[in-house]
């Protein structure tokens, strides 16, 4: 209760960005952090140890998870968390590889999907809006496609999906809501509105359906407790 | 809807018309005549929290075991849910000036439906809510990210000329609960837009 309501009941966009920055992303490192570097490329399949030699670095990254960060080899793609990728990118130590859906081709496919199915959302990842925005801002030179074209398509997608959401809001009810493939940021900006409306609809609904179903068995627990609280009021 | 919900308390204080079914001594102060008794069949406006109790609890008239008790008052339908209003609700939910009907319309409606198990009223109100929700949402989604300037302080006229302030007539007709919904939704839209444009 220490937080104000708008922070305790929903995320701020900054918090969503924080969550998204923990997602893995593919990078091309420009530095090598692996301790053992293969000198001889001839027969490394037979004996890994015999064909490698130690070139100890003066430094290692401090991580809880050894694997990706201390095993980077220049120009070999690897997966790291987005926040560390952005840090490396900032110091020109890596290139970020845009995910497959974040290309002109991939986005066109999503737009196609949105147009074909007027009542469904295309299966974009849950962080598409935030991730694309971060990459446009921080790694715009790593895209193979022109950024302004990608930006236009992201904007188009967002608008098409918003129209669909608006259509869907006409069918809000007191019990059920399905939001497949909608990303966290898109849900987040609707959350307080939808929760408020659905709560009130349920209040109204419970108020008059108490007596009709009062005699029958409770079908589920949550409904039963709702009913208890509403009967206590009167 | 908690114990400390100010709007809930204020909604409970809304006065509803009641008819006394018994003569009650010493409560003339309710009708502005201290010391007198209130006669049978006299009509009074009582706050909902009081009327609700008095409509349930009755006084025995001497005989019987309590089953035949007459409640002190009979609740009469308030103007808020008069047929005139209900027709307006059904005709055009968005054009209705809900704030003029009652600033606590939804809270009252829920309480009233609860008291009388009035399913028809409940369904009408649910439809009204859903129709107005679309309008609230489209108003809330209307975000202009212009920093407030000194012109805003000069008055509504100055800011309207600058195109900063978009206030539709609909927003003046919202009831108190709708206003909180609008405020929260608007803040969510504004935060997202701010983040995307930063």
TrEMBL record, chain A:
Region (Disordered) residue spans: 213-234
Location relative to the cell: Nucleus
Domain GINS subunit residues, every copy: 101-204
Record has Iron-sulfur as a keyword: no
Main location: nucleus
Pfam families: PSF2_N, Sld5
Subunit structure as annotated in this protein's UniProt entry: Component of the GINS complex.
Family in the record: Belongs to the GINS2/PSF2 family.
Name of the protein in its database record: DNA replication complex GINS protein PSF2
Gene: KNAG0B05250
Automatic annotation (TrEMBL), chain B:
InterPro entries: GINS_A (IPR021151), GINS_bundle-like_dom_sf (IPR036224), GINS_Psf3 (IPR010492), GINS_Psf3_sf (IPR038437), PSF3_N (IPR055221)
Major localization class: nucleus
Keyword Transmembrane assigned: no
Coiled-coil parts of chain: none
CDD domains, per database record: GINS_A_psf3, GINS_B_Psf3
GO cellular component: CMG complex; GINS complex; nuclear replication fork
One record GO biological process: double-strand break repair via break-induced replication
Entry keywords, A to Z: DNA replication, Nucleus
Pfam families the UniProt entry points to: PSF3_N (PF22466), Sld5 (PF05916)
Stretches assigned to the DNA replication complex GINS protein PSF3 N-terminal domain: 4-56
Cellular compartments annotated: Nucleus
Keyword Nucleus in annotation: yes
Residue span(s) of domain GINS subunit: 83-196
Classification via SUPFAM superfamilies: GINS helical bundle-like, PriA/YqbF domain
Oligomer status and interactors: Component of the GINS complex which is a heterotetramer of SLD5, PSF1, PSF2 and PSF3.
Protein family per UniProt: Belongs to the GINS3/PSF3 family.
Function, as annotated: The GINS complex plays an essential role in the initiation of DNA replication.
Protein name: DNA replication complex GINS protein PSF3
Organism: Huiozyma naganishii (strain ATCC MYA-139 / BCRC 22969 / CBS 8797 / KCTC 17520 / NBRC 10181 / NCYC 3082 / Yp74L-3)
Source taxonomy: Eukaryota, Fungi, Dikarya, Ascomycota, Saccharomycotina
Gene name, Swiss-Prot/TrEMBL: KNAG0K02640
């Amino acid at each position: 209760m220490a937080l104000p309501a708008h922070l305790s009941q929903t995320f701020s966009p900054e918090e969503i960005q924080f969550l998204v920055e923990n997602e893995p992303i593919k990078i091309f490192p420009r530095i090598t952090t692996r301790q053992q570097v293969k000198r001889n490329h001839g027969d490394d399949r037979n004996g890994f140890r015999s064909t490698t030699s130690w070139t100890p670095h003066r430094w290692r990254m401090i991580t809880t998870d050894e694997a990706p960060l201390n095993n980077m080899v220049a120009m070999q793609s690897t997966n790291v968390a987005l926040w560390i990728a952005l840090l490396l990118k900032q110091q020109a130590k890596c290139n970020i590889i845009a995910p497959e859906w974040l290309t002109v081709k991939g986005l066109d496919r999503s737009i196609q999907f949105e147009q074909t199915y007027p009542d469904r959302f295309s299966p974009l990842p849950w962080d598409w809006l935030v991730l694309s925005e971060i990459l446009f801002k921080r790694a715009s030179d790593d895209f193979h496609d022109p950024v302004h074209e990608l930006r236009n398509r992201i904007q188009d997608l967002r608008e098409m999906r918003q129209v669909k959401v608006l259509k869907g809001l006409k069918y809000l009810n007191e019990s059920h809501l399905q939001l497949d493939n909608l990303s966290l940021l898109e849900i987040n900006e609707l959350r307080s509105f939808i929760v408020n409306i659905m709560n009130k609809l349920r209040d109204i609904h419970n108020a008059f359906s108490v007596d009709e179903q009062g005699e029958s068995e409770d079908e589920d627990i949550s409904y039963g407790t709702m009913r208890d609280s509403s009967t206590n009021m009167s | 809807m908690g114990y400390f919900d100010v709007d809930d308390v204020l909604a409970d204080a809304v006065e509803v018309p009641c008819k006394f079914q018994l003569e009650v001594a010493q409560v003339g102060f309710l009708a502005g005549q201290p010391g007198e008794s209130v006669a049978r069949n006299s009509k009074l406006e009582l706050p909902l929290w009081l009327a609700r109790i008095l409509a349930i609890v009755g006084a025995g008239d001497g005989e019987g075991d309590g089953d035949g008790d007459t409640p002190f008052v009979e609740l009469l339908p308030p103007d808020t849910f008069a047929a005139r209003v209900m027709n307006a609700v059904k005709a055009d939910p968005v054009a209705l000036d809900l704030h003029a009907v009652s600033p606590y319309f939804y809270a009252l409606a829920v309480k009233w439906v609860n008291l009388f198990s009035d399913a028809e009223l409940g369904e009408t109100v649910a439809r009204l809510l859903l129709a107005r929700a679309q309008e609230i949402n489209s108003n809330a989604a209307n975000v202009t990210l212009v920093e407030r300037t000194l012109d805003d302080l000069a008055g509504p006229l100055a800011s309207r000329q600058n195109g900063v302030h978009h206030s539709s007539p609909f927003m003046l007709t919202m009831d108190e609960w709708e206003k909180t919904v609008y405020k929260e939704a608007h803040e969510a839209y504004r935060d997202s837009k701010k983040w995307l444009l930063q």
